[in-house]
Amino acid sequence: MKRSAPLTLTRAATGGALWMGGSLALQVAIGLVAQVILAAILTPHDFGSLAEVEDRLLGFQDYYQSIGTPFNWKFTRADLDALLKKLAAAPTELRPAA
């Protein structure tokens, strides 16, 4: 079976907005979501129009918003302040790895 080329987003496809900032953790999270979307929604690449792609993406969004549940966030502002103080007090010079 012949596989289609992977979907790539360009500035034109995203309406000119291409954002690359943020932390590494955020970028990894965005990458994971993009992989899920590509695997679960956009494969196979059998859409007749961009409207069909939009309908499938919005359906995916609606489904996951309907099953999502809030969670108890236990990392408080005080925890963050303590972590930042600990990081500020840590030595800043790098040690050799070996």
Span between N and C termini?
Answer: 48 Å
**CA gyration radius, whole angstroms:** 20 Å
Low-confidence stretches: 1-14
Strand content: under 5%
Give the overall shape, derived from the CA principal axes: elongated
Which key phrases capture this entry?
98 residues, mainly alpha, 3 helices, 49% helix, elongated, disordered N terminus
Q: Explain this structure to me?
A:
There is one protein chain. Residues 1-14 have low confidence and may be disordered. This protein has a domain at 24-88. The longest helix is centred in the middle third of the chain and has 18 residues, at 50-67. The protein has helices spanning 24-40, 50-67, 77-89. It is elongated. With 98 residues, the protein is mostly helical.
Give me the secondary-structure topology:
Blueprint (H helix, E strand, L loop, with lengths): L23 H17 L9 H18 L9 H13 L9
